[in-house]
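Students often ask what a holo structure prediction actually looks like on paper. The answer is less mysterious than it sounds. You provide the chain, you provide the ligand, and the output is a string of discrete structure tokens encoding the 3D arrangement of the protein together with iron/sulfur cluster.
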Amino acid sequence: MNLRAGSEEDFGAVATMITNDCINCGACEPECPNNAISQGENLYVIDPLLCTECVGFHDYEACAAVCPVDCCVTDPNNIETEEALIARARALHPEVNFGEQFESRFRKGAGKPATSGAAKKPEPAAAAAARSEAPPAAAADRQPGPAPEEDLQALLAKLPEVDEWQIPVRCFRCGQSYEVPAERFMIGNVLFCPHCFKSMVVKDSLSFQIRTTLKQAYEKWQKARAELEAKRARELKEFYEKRARELEAFIDSERRSIEQVKDQLRAITETYDAPGRIKKGNLLGWG
Ligand code: SF4
Ligand code: SF4
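The corresponding structure tokens follow.
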């Protein structure tokens, strides 16, 4: 393996580096909780001032875990201590309280599952932003019930935008639940549990599943809405056609009734025995 890290020669403390076996797939970049990976001139590179070997966030190196060609490696000539790495993580993330039982690859397999000790304070900026920018509740929370025409139209118009959905998340570390706007489930975003501050990187599979689920739900709702609107349009058309037929039948009936009344009136006047009226049988003076 040909070792060549982006800038390790400038910093004697590079622990994780990318070799020139890198195929530039980009899979590692969004996994890094420190945004330490970027695309260099020829290959992806790790900023040694930002890399903590994922200490503080994971008990493994996230970039190495996803690299398809295993070119995210520990530089044997530049070994860093856990103490130095967690100090760097704390400096990079002052908003996170890592506690003493932080995640660390140094304790992996030693029978001491790493825990984030960040259960109390303060809340990470990302989590705070996610909470403060909370959009309206999703449609599923609404209880529409029977609604008059105007309310139904208003309800249908109020389906939230896809990015406004609040996605429920159960922290795999502390087991508590929290909500994150759908727009934050972009590949590479780091989500923080507001209860224990455990981070979670959004991978393409999670982003895809959430987008797909919402897309399918919206397609289903839009189809149901189109069917409802078509049904209502059909019923309205049938109603107006029926009303027109009834009106036409009513007018015909009225015309016939008027003619009948005219006939009756004509019959009355024709049979009226008016004074001085010459009767047919008396034209010759009989009777
Ligand atoms: Fe980032 Fe962790 Fe890889 Fe270092 S080891 S570059 S912190 S993902
Ligand atoms: Fe290079 Fe591996 Fe990162 Fe892909 S995952 S860009 S091959 S270092």
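The mean pLDDT is 77.
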